[in-house]
Each structure stands twice: as structure tokens, then as C-alpha cells.
Amino acid sequence: MTRLLLQGGRLVDPASRHDGVADVLVDDGRVAEVGPGLDGTGAEVVDCGGLVVCPGLVDLHVHLREPGREDAETIETGSRAAALGGYTAVCPMPNTDPVADNAGVVEMVAARGREVGLVDVFPVGAVTLGQRGAELAELGAMARSAARVDCFSDDGLPIREARLLRLALEYTRAFDAVIADHAQDASLTDGAQMHEGEVSAMLGLAGWPAAAEEMVVARDLLLAELTGGRLHLCHVSTGGAVELVRAAKARGVRVTAEAAPHHFALTDEAARSYDPVFKVNPPLREKADVEAVRQGLADGTLDAIATDHAPHAREDKEVEWAAAPPGMLGLETALAVTLTELVEPGYLDLVTAVERLTAGPARCRRLPGHGGPVAPGAAANLAVFDPAAAWTVDRARLASRARNTPFHGRELRGRVVHTLLRGAFAVRDGRATR
Amino acid sequence: MVLDAADVHRALVRIAHEIVERNKGTDGLLVVGIHTRGVPLARRLAAKLGEIEGREVPAGALDVAMYRDDIGMRPPQATHDTELPFDLAGKVVVLVDDVLYTGRTVRAALDALTDFGRPRAIQLAVLVDRGHRELPLRADYVGKNLPTAPGQAVRVLLAETDGEDGVLVEDAPRKAVV
Amino acid sequence: MQKHLLSAADLTAADITRVLDTAAHLAKVTDRAIKKVPTLRGRTVCNLFFEDSTRTRISFELAAKRLSADVINFSAKGSSVSKGESLKDTAITLEAMGVDAIVIRHGASGAPWRLAEWVEAVVVNAGDGTHEHPTQALLDLYTMRQRFPGFDGLKVAIVGDVLHSRVARSNVLALTTMGAEVTLVAPPTLLPARVETWGAAVSYDLDAVLPKQDVVMLLRVQLERQRAGFFPSLREYARLYGLDARRLDAMADHAIVMHPGPMNRGVEIAAEVADSIERSVIADQVANGISVRMALLYLLLGGPEVVA
């Protein structure tokens, strides 16, 4: 196997609290040594001067669309997009066709990920059969399957019945799994198209009030407290929701939470163009909410940045707003958006930003070998990026099969140079190796 | 200033007499001004004709914005009211305009007028003929023949619209908004 | 003027005045023996109507024809759209046919904006979802101008389902641009979020507002709103917000009642007052609609941009 010496980069490893210039020696898929001025004999030297070396990024929330909607994305194209974004681990949601509510489908998804070999794929299993919200799926079977599922979600849909969420939180204590909820009250958001506020009122689009997310977050936190189960909150988007999580954590509730880059970079003003590339669930919110999400990521109330990467076939988004499905791409732009919108303006320092993209998500689920620490013996899942490189997002040149990125045409700073999966290049010099 | 107020007045008086002579009186005659400055000129002519023959000659106004041949090539022109409070059939209509240049405005006016009815004859009176016709049209009555270069602009001032009477020739390139 | 007419907010006060003045001149075309001018000869206007609306469609059709334009009517029912052809596909087809203007009415808010992205033609919004209906607002303003000297300080009340009304949104925008004082009157459930940012006063009490108004514009209340629970019953709505004989009396003598039509007798307007109002107002609006739409087509298609 190859010996690599990643030389002279700034090693940012939140799990070991390392931030400083150091070399990383990789041998046989593992980190062999970390430190300044390492001996590179017998190793291929990769110059990382001026670059940041960190654990490979971890995305808790993506939609890879396979099986069922391979016209929008496949595990292969999604993996490539992820690797180009600096990711070494992704967690695809179960709202595929067929739904990933049994051992067979989750094993198939994980196996396909291994076959493609660009990132590690850790499937999320559905909580209820067919995500219909009526009966629990065979969570135990999925947990014990080769896919070793330890996170379940009906994402895309809320778990409407409190009783069912309670049962799921209790039942999964047996295998120390996490229930990730998509917080949305169905009756308050029936027919809703965007965030309810000044913009929606003027645009004549039915609105999704912040309260519709917050009341479910409140419910979920109370149930987590009641059951002692592990709760994870998907795509937190409102100031009120951040506040609820903050208070719950202070009380000692076992909850983790994520936020998506579009929720800290864009507001509901984007909808004025009526371009459904900006349509997403939960919707883009108001300035105050965006500010609160940024603060939440800064103070750790929100543990992770997760993209909710949601590819859609071109023709599905080239329609009138009401007819378009919600969802935006995120894998290839997440790191750059984080650096440009959070680090540059000073909400987060670089170490914290990297933490929210690596060690933070790795704490929310069992993802062996990912998130750091970058220490001898650890799997060499690493990303190397240029924090200052400026580039303009071009939707036609993304590796994803889909084009629905809300950042098309925007200039961002931060570009991935290399991504290594167990010591092998998945991305080299900005290009996927396969 | 190539024509002053006195020149303008004399020209109109002469045109009025020519109209009477040619039409052997003012019986069945209508005077219709083309917007914008043709309209006050038409009113003055109608008043003069009324003086000469002792009987009122009706005056009207015609807006040709909708009939121009350059629609879509230049910004849409402002519209004005067309007032033709009489039946055109069997009448002689004297169209009146301030400047005759390419002839395209007159062509538009002929089309507009015929959408209102079928006069027995249409004659044209202009205060100034500056040459450079692009269509085979001529005026029956001309106040002054003014040879000009295409780059020049001819500006007619009238008391009703500009506070004084006069005709100016300017070299500055100005879009001919007739 | 902007290239397209998508929102009433696209028009400045000067633009609106221009449209109304031009409409006044073009109104005379209808009185002539030959009800036509050759202005838009050789141009093609397409009426792309995804929602039924005979009245608006005919108004645009007549307006275009009076300007000598060719008109194609494309109604969604029975066309390839009902077989699943998307708005974008339809747009590409129309573009290939070389239409100069597309007048679109669609059930989805924002559809005209998407259409404008896909075609070179001029796009006119004839009503999109619950968003806007700018030509209706222009014809409403035209009707007001026939009765009142100007808009500055003109007191206009808009009564009814503001939340779902595209007529309300466009009128609020156009009227506030012209300096009118607009008051929105509705039950709280039928007012949009943050409506206080719209530049109009808001009231839940019709009787308090009525006597001071110069214009009372009634909005149509759709029956499905009652079913969706926005107000308990049609009877209660009529009692609190319906225009009946007593309220008509309470209005100033010079005040006028307007309604975009068609009327729901017994709901927003009592049967006994509907007939007399319908006669005076609706008839005007139909004629005015054609003149205003002629003016718009002329100003939008007549050339690169409007000269002051």
C-alpha cells in the first residue's frame, strides 16, 4: 500500500485540539505519525504548504436518491460530489423508492457505497414502514444488519404522532441508536410554499410559520427527556428552535442538532425571483433566524453542519414554484459556504468550523474512523483544502447529476484540493480519481 | 430664425386665400390639423377662412401615432386626442402640418383619415416644406420652401404651444419628432 | 417602462399616468366605424390561459385585434398541457412560433416570472395564483380617474379576502404609487402576514371606515375559503363585511363602489344593491378594460422604450 507524507500543511484536528503546522504520515490506510518535520523516506510527498489538513468531512444528512430516482442522483454521482466537497462519510436518508425501511435496502445502499469506494456510506433507516408514520419499521434488523444502522429518520416527513416518536425513542435505546426528526407540523404547513413572513405575503405564496417547526421541536425535546432516548434534530432553521435546543441542553436532555449551509447563508428574500432552486423544507427563513443559526453553530447549541443535499432532476425544478419539489444541493459547496459565511465574517474560527463539519457530526452517530482524531492508528480519512482559493460556483460543472444549487454564480472562498479515504486519493488536485 | 412672427402670419393669410381660390370658396371644406403643431395652425387657418368667406369652417385634430410606419423601431410616441366632429363623406379635407419633410407623417395621416370616412378630396397645407421627400407626396399649399441639409433640424414655434411664432433652423442633431 | 408587465410594482407613477392617458385616447377607437388602428399589424399576441377566464381573455383578444395584431388563444384544457407538457415546454413552443407577446394567466403565483426567463417575447401577467393582476389594477385606476380628479389623497377601501386576492395586491401597489390612501378591511384571518408593511391602513371594522371613503372596492369571497375555516359562515361574513343597502347609505354621496366581478350575491354584496351597482360599475369596467389593455400592448410592443 502507498505511503504518503502530507507535508507542511496546517493540521486542524478538533478532536485532538490540534491547530498548527504539522506533517501527517499515512501508511497502509492509516495515520502512522503526526508531527512537524517528519521523515518522508519511502513515501510519496504531497506538498500541503498553505493548505489546511483536517479529518475528512462528515455529512449526517444527504439524499442520494438511489434506489428509485437515479435520474436525479446515484450513489456514485453523489459520492463523487461528496468527495469533491471534502467529505469522507455521508449518511443518506431513507426516502428512496423503495424506502430504506428494512435490512435489505440499507445493506444494498451501503454495499453500493463500498463498491463505488469514494466515500463511506452510512445509511439512515426509516423509523416507520414506508415512512407512512403508522407502524415502526424493523429497527433492530437494520441495526444488526451489515449496514449497522444506528440512526433512524422519516426525514422528508415529520413523525406526526407523538406516541410513535415516543415508542421509537424508547425502543432504540436497546441498540443505542438515534432518532433524527424532521420537525414540521403538518396542519400548520398544509400547502405551504415558503417561510411565512413579509416576503411570502407579498409574493402570494402560502407560508410556513416558524412556529410550525418550533412546536414540534418542543414536543420532540420533551419526549427525549421523558424517554431518555437519543434525539437528533434535522435542519434546525429558526431562532426559536435554536433557543429551545439551547435550553434543553442546559437541562441535560440528550439531544444533538444540525443546521444546513443554506439556512445560515440565505434568507427568504431569495424567493422573490420565484426560482424554485430556492424552495426547500424547512424554508429559507428571515435574517433574524439566519443570525440565530449562526450563533447556534458558534456556541455549540447546534453540533453539526449537515447539507441536506437534495438533488432534483432538472425538469422537476424548471417549473413554477408551486409545482417544484423542495430541496437544494449542498455537498460540493458546504465547506466553501461555511468558510465564506461563518469564518470570514468572524462567527466561527476555523477550528470550530472544522469541528462542526467533522468531530461534531461524528459525535451524533457511530461513524467509525471518521471525524478525527488524526492520530497514529486512526483510519486515514482526511481532507486537504485551500482556505483562500476563490472560485465561482457553476451549476453546469458540478459532479452531482443535478443542478439545483442555490449558489450558482456566487463567488466563494475555500476549495478542496485532496480527499483521502483510508489513505487512497478519492480526490486529487481538485479532481475525483474515478 | 428664418421666419419671424410677422412672416408666419403673412404665410397663413396667403395660404388661406389660396385655399379659397383653389376650392372656389369654403363650401364643404374641413380643416384638420395633424398633432401636434398642425392643430393650432389648422385652427388659425379655419378662423382665417371663416373671416374671408364670412362663414364658419370646421376645424379638427388628427393623431397619427397609431398609424406610423416606424412602430417598433423607435420608442412608442405619446398619443393625443383625435377630434373629427363631422362626417367626412363628400367633403374636401385640408390636412395641415407645420413641417413637410420625408412625407411619412402625411402618409400616416392619410391612412388615419381614411379610417374615419371617405372625403371627396384631401389637400395638404404646410407652413414649411424642407425637402428630402422619401415618398411620392407633395403639398398643395406651402408657406415657405426651406432647403435644408438632412443633418439640420427645422423647429416651428407657435404662440399656442411655445409662446411665440417663428421658424428656426438648427444644426444640432435632434431626433425629428414630428 | 420595463420590458414585461409582471407586477404593478414594475410601474412608476409616470408609467401609470402614461398608460391611463394613452388608454383615454385609445378609448375613442371603439366609437369609430372602423374599430381598428394598424399599429401592431404583423405582431402576434398569444393568450396563454391556464385558468378559465373568458372575460379577461376576450378583453385582451379584442385589445390586440383593435391594434391589428394577430391573436392566438392557448387554453390549457384540451391542449398538450393537460397531457403533461410543462410550462417550460409550452414556452419553448411559443418562442419557436415567433410570438411577440404572451399574456399569461396561471394558477401558480410566480408563473409569469418563470415564463419571462424562458422566452424573448414580452410577458404580460393576466393573473398569477394569489399574487397579482396588474392589468386589473390599471383598469380599476382608470375607472377611478373617470370619476375623480386625481389620486393624491384619494381614499380607497379594499374590502374582503385580501390574503388570497391578486386584485388587492396589485391595487395596493398601484394606488400607493399614485399617492392614494388605501385602507384594507377584512377579518384578521383574511389579511396577510405583516400587512402593516404594505403602506395601507388596516381595519376590521367596515362600518367605521365606510363614511370617509371615496372608493369602496369589494373583493370576491370564494366559497372554499369558508370551507377552509377562514370565517365561520357566509352569513357571518355578509353581516360583518357585506355591502348592503344600509351600508350603501352610510357612504358619502360622491363615493363609488367597485367590484372586479363576478359578484357573489348575498356574500360580499347584498342582492338588493348588487343589480344597481353591477349596472353602473361592471359595464364601465368592461369597456375600460379593453382601452387599458390596448394602451398597454401599444406601450409594451410599440418600441424599445417609452419616450417621455
Q: What can you see in these coordinates?
A:
The complex is a heterotrimer of chains A (434), B (178) and C (308). Chain A has 13 helices and 19 strands. Chain A has 434 residues and is of the alpha/beta class. Chain A has two domains: 3-53 and 378-432, Roll (Urease, subunit C, domain 1); 56-364, TIM Barrel (Alpha-Beta Barrel). The longest helix of chain A is centred in the middle third of the chain and has 18 residues, at 210-227. Chain B has one domain (5-170): Rossmann fold. Chain B starts with a helix and ends in an 8-residue tail after the last strand. The model of chain B has no long low-confidence stretch (mean pLDDT 92). Chain C is of the alpha/beta class. In chain C, the strands form two sheets. Chain C has a five-stranded parallel sheet. A four-stranded parallel sheet of chain C has the order 2-1-3-4, sandwiched between helices. In chain C, α1 (13-26) crosses α5 (134-147), α3 (87-97) crosses α4 and α5 (134-147) crosses α11 (271-301). Chains B and C meet through loops of B and α1 and α11 of C.
Quaternary structure state of the chains depicted:
heterotrimer
From the 3D structure, determine the CATH topology of the largest domain in chain C.
Rossmann fold
CATH architecture term of chain B: 3-Layer(aba) Sandwich
**CATH fold-level topology of chain B:** Rossmann fold
Q: Largest interface, and how many residues on either side?
A: B-C, 22 and 26 residues
Spatial strand arrangement across the major sheet of chain C: 7-6-5-8-9
- Major β-sheet of chain B, in short? 5 strands, parallel
- Number of DSSP E strands of chain C: 9
The counted number of beta strands of chain B is 7
Q: Which structural class do the helices and strands of chain B define?
A: alpha/beta
Q: Structural class, judged by helices and strands of chain C?
A: alpha/beta
Overall radius of gyration of chain B: 16 Å
The CATH superfamily of the largest domain in chain C appears as Aspartate/ornithine carbamoyltransferase
The percent range for helix content of chain B is 25-40%
What would you say the CATH architecture of the largest domain in chain C is? 3-Layer(aba) Sandwich
Give the H and E element order of chain C: HEHEHEHEHEHEEHEHHHEH
Rg from alpha-carbon coordinates of chain C: 19 Å
Number of domains of chain B: 1
Rounded mean pLDDT of chain B is 92
N to C succession of SSEs of chain B: HEHEEHEEEHE
* Shape by Cα distribution of chain C: globular
